[in-house]
Amino acid sequence: MKIMTLMGGPSPEREISITSGKAVSDGLRRLGHEVLEEDFSIETYENIRNLKPDLVFIVMHGSPGEDGSVQGMLEILGVPYTGSGVLASSLSMDKAALKRFLSDSDITMPSWFWVPESAEIDIAINRLAAQGMLFPVVVKPTSAGSTIGISIVKDEDELEEAIQNARKINPDAIVEQFISGKEVTVSIVGNDNPIILPTQEIIAEGGFYDYDAKYTPGKSEHVFPPDIAPASIYKAEEMAERAYIETGCLGFARADFIIGNNGEPYFLEMNTIPGMTEVSLVPDSAREHGWSFDELLKRIAEYALEHFSSSVRKQH
Ligand SMILES: Nc1ncnc2c1ncn2[C@@H]1O[C@H](COP(=O)(O)OP(=O)(O)OP(=O)(O)O)[C@@H](O)[C@H]1O
Ligand SMILES: [Mg+2]
To answer: What CATH number is given to the structural domain containing 29?
Structure first.
């Protein structure tokens, strides 16, 4: 096939996306495909019209690309693409929207509230008290990734600066209860009947899986199987699968959890285009399941074509 790997673009995660994109291109070439690498820009629409790829493999992180916008462009162009569609991508990119969407789904989440663009700091302080939330709390931009703009806040004095930091990335933010426990990530692949790949524990140097811990070799460890009660892992996997299906995710995604010290998994977020370097979390889980990096790419491409052919059938 002629496959375009779409990467880069103006998102804050541009560099990571290019690293992932190049790894995907190499893998697709090893599988025998003709690969066209595209650094996303305003020219991309015309380039796709002219080059007519059989499939676009989207390896963009953050906005635009992971948020449904590029998926919408490809829907209009009628070109098959990997991963989730417009709605699942945009819902998953917006942490507040996804939490609201899944609020009646029996998925345990940390207590949280939304801080709109215009909210004064006093409003946030009142909400914390009203919801019985205690410090530390976590402040996040609503739509970002790679821990960019996220702070762990130990007391009221640090809250304003944390909200300002998050607002540098997005106009609005969320405040979430900090959950003390162990971090795990659940990798999921497939369309209607997704496969749960082996869950891994993430142990970050310093305890916080921040940008540095994510991308500096040796600063975090991926552990199989997690040193956590199997019942808690099973519960997280069930929640991940439910979130994937209810949100309408396709192809592949990765759900992040903290398993609290009480053994209860707390769902943090869904990543619809997770890191795809050969040492990223989803490829690691695939390897543990017995699939090489290339085998994983092959399946993601197949899920995309399978979905595209069934949705084209539905339209006619
Ligand atoms: N409520 C919480 N309690 C404890 N730690 C948290 C909490 N929320 C986030 N963290 C820590 O911050 C990290 C980043 O949070 P989160 O996964 O929500 O953001 P992200 O920037 O979208 O991440 P990604 O790179 O996976 O897209 C988590 O991996 C975890 O280490
Ligand atoms: Mg995360």
So the answer is: 3.40.50.20
